[in-house]
Amino acid sequence: MKLYNFFRSGTSHRLRIALHLKGLDTEYVALDLRKEEHLQADFKAINPQQLVPALALRDGTVLIQSPAIIEWLEERHPNPALLPRDPDARAHVRALASIVACDIHPINNRRILEYLRKNFSADSDTVNAWCGTWISAGFDAIETLLAADRQRGDFCHGNTPGLADVYLIPQVESARRFKVDLTRWPLISAVDAACAQLQAFRHAAPSAQPDAG
Amino acid sequence: MKLYNFFRSGTSHRLRIALHLKGLDTEYVALDLRKEEHLQADFKAINPQQLVPALALRDGTVLIQSPAIIEWLEERHPNPALLPRDPDARAHVRALASIVACDIHPINNRRILEYLRKNFSADSDTVNAWCGTWISAGFDAIETLLAADRQRGDFCHGNTPGLADVYLIPQVESARRFKVDLTRWPLISAVDAACAQLQAFRHAAPSAQPDAG
């Protein structure tokens, strides 16, 4: 499988974590978003949405959108499972993931911040305040949901890493970049520390990628 | 089940469509977002994220985040199915849904537009241009993906309504509100017309809700 991605992209990062947790190897294809390589015609032919990540299967099928790809991984490569078995617990874990996937990450990604800089003359403090607003709102909700979950363990849900951790860790990384003070969320910080011990998360980290820099 | 929602909320709308397609009745609980009823303490106790929709089950469990709730519906009430059986096809349909769920809707929702008005002094033309940018980028990608799908039928994928339609139709409704010209996307428009014939979509429409106005 070919993984089209960028070391610092949060959606690429979450997909790399899922792939490493599943023990799946991929060929790493880097697209430098800073050079707008994702906007070139050859990548548009691979992913019409011109966003990373995309996963090209051996038969040529291209999967796009990290939430769709990660659910596909769970269906095609069920072990180790990223989701619990019980549907209510699955809904809880998917809700944690969706808070990041829908209500934090897309609002802070590259194309949005470029729009703010270009059309609203936003400087770096204004951009950090924008990102901090949505990260804080989402993390406040996640922290409350983690506190209320009787099955919280070393990780977001239970004592093995799962879907919620896959989404949360890249968002914590991004929060650090936007200078958000993480001490406000001790449970999220504890999950982050637990994940940092695991090889799958270390190998998927932006700084560990061949295009990092 | 109690459905906490708001007639005009796109995420509420998509969940209502899924519930109607599954033939499930709910008790409708309206929260008027214009009066900030979702920001009151009593709703925060139900959903710490203070967003609609939320679905309270008979045992008191509250499900939040429409993508998580819709996957739960598919698991607990599998018939009629909203997703195809084949994992690659499921990934395709989920990708279409995710383009709306992650890369269009959250960027244009109420709290973001309020921030633009308040912090960037955005007027209604500026807000419409903002929304039009993200709707157009997403719809361009969806239109291309629909054109390339050999299993496209009357609906996004095949000849029965499914997950992609559940997400797409509320976004089309929202595009109309933000004065986006839909003639640019004939395949999306055809799906919209097909869905408009179905009772599940009619009953889920914002204008058909008790709090509409």
UniProtKB/TrEMBL annotation, chains A, B:
Ordered alphabetically, the record's keywords are:
Isomerase
Question: What InterPro entries does the annotation carry?
Answer: Glutathione-S-Trfase_C-like, Glutathione-S-Trfase_C_sf, Glutathione_S-Trfase, Glutathione_S-Trfase_N, GST_Zeta, GST_Zeta_C, GST_Zeta_N, Thioredoxin-like_sf
Fetch the PROSITE patterns from UniProt.
GST_CTER, GST_NTER
Record-level GO cellular component terms: cytoplasm
Can you name one GO molecular function term for this protein?
Answer: glutathione transferase activity
Query: Which Pfam families did the record assign?
Result: GST_C_2, GST_N_2
Residue ranges constituting the GST C-terminal domain according to the UniProt record: 86-213
Q: Name one GO biological process term.
A: L-phenylalanine catabolic process
Out of the domains of life, which is the source?
Answer: Bacteria
- Where is the GST N-terminal domain positioned along the sequence? 1-81
Gene3D superfamilies, sorted: 1.20.1050.10, Glutaredoxin
Which NCBIfam families does the entry link to? maiA (TIGR01262)
Task: Name the protein family.
Answer: Belongs to the GST superfamily. Zeta family.
Q: What is this protein called?
A: Maleylacetoacetate isomerase
To which species is this protein native?
Answer: Hylemonella gracilis ATCC 19624
Q: What is the lineage of its organism?
A: Bacteria, Pseudomonadati, Pseudomonadota, Betaproteobacteria, Burkholderiales
